[in-house]
Every structure is written in C-alpha cells, then in structure tokens.
Amino acid sequence: MNNYKVTIEYLGKNYSGWQIQEGKTTIEGEITRAVKEISGEEAIIVGSGRTDAGVRAIGQVANFKIEKEFEPTKLIMALNNHLPQDISIKSAELVSDDFNARFSAKRKTYEYYFYVSPVRSSIFDEFALQVKRADTSKMQQACKHFVGEHDFSSFVASNSGKTNFVRTIFDAKIECVEGNLHKLIICGNGFLYNMVRIIMGTIILVGEGKIEPSDIAKIIEAKDRTKAGKTVSPIGLCLARVEYDQK
Known about the structure:
There is one protein chain. The protein is α+β, with helices and mostly antiparallel strands. It folds into two domains: 2-95, Pseudouridine synthase I, catalytic domain, N-terminal subdomain (Alpha-Beta Plaits, 2-Layer Sandwich); 106-244, 2-Layer Sandwich (Alpha-Beta Plaits), CATH 3.30.70. Helix content is 21%, strand content 32%. A hairpin with an 8-residue loop joins strand 2 (46-47) and strand 3. The longest helix is centred in the first third of the chain and has 13 residues, at 27-39.
C-alpha cells in the first residue's frame, strides 16, 4: 500500500465540518469521494484533527493508503480536478507506512481573525468576528497566561467526551493583520473541542475590560467552564499549520 500525505486548504462555510456524517456534506467526505474516483479504491482519510462546521483551513494535513501509485504532482492535479472549488490539495507526498496525520502530529497552529469596530464590515464579516470595542494590548497580555502545560477544563465544551484536559500551549499572541483587523495565533500540542473558540471568547472579555489579563490564570486554575467566556462563532477560526517531527 502507498501512504500519501496531503496538505489541504478549504473554506468551511458550505460544509458540516471535517468528519463524515450521514446525510451531510463534509470535507472528509468530499476527499474520500475524490480518492475513489481517481483510484477506484475505498480509502480511509485520516485527518490531523476535526474542524467544526464553518471553520476553514490553509494547512490541514491528512493521509490515506491506496494500492495505486501516483507521482505527487499528478496526485494533486487529479484530486483537485475531482474536488469542489472550495477544497483544494496544496501538496502531496509519499510517506512511510507508519505515518499517521493525527497521531504523528507534534504541533498545531490555529488563527482566529477578528476586527475591532462599532460598525460591521461587509468584507471582514466573511472571515472575521466583529468586536465592537477592545483594548488589544490587554488582550496581548492575557495571551501569555495560556502558555505552558495546563488543565484546560475551563476551556472545553461540556460534550467533548474527553477525560484528559491537559494540553501544552507553546505560543499565544495577538497580531495586527492590517488596520483594525487582528488575529489570535495559538500553537499547541493539541486542542480540545471548541478550546480555541472559548479561549478567544475569554480574551475578548479582557479586551472589553470586563475581566483583567491576570484573571486568565484564575480561570485556568478553576477548571470550571462557567468561569470562562462564551464560545465565539466559528467564522474567524482557521487551522493554519500542522507540524511533524518526521514524515
């Protein structure tokens, strides 16, 4: 069997998330269909993680195993010819048999886009969350409290199904993209269900002056979902990069 690693870019607004669901259109489902159409084989697509409905990606990684052999450039072209316009394969390579896009991943980076304005933007609203007022310097201060190994029970959806809430955040920061458009960049060894969206919702509370940057440490320590901010819309969330030690 040939094990192919692919990097995928997609817009999530027309899909019910990454994972295949009966009766729904999903990213994984579309890629599974495309692989079958070009190879004639039923492949299991293993993604680095599951993104929710509406979430986009510029660096999602997946792997699949098929008997048919493709030159990577031709595999990219063949898959893209069978995928809708809002899903595209950016790169492909043949990797070792033991590579698993999910379990081999070492670091994931998410970005969450938001703009600060009392007036909505018809352009930014396509991919960013409106925050009517915010002190981004205080939001930056809040980010540093997330860095390190913590129990993130306060920042996970109640229906996550997980029992281990410990994750390591390597870096978290607010960056100005242009003008009043900003993004949260957060990199970790893994993320819980809705974790980034809840972190963003809590950082917004800091920006609005409703809590202080130092309160983040207390919220983490509380291990209580009710202490953190709301789960913000998926509109601003993007899976930017997945990193591996080996191919």
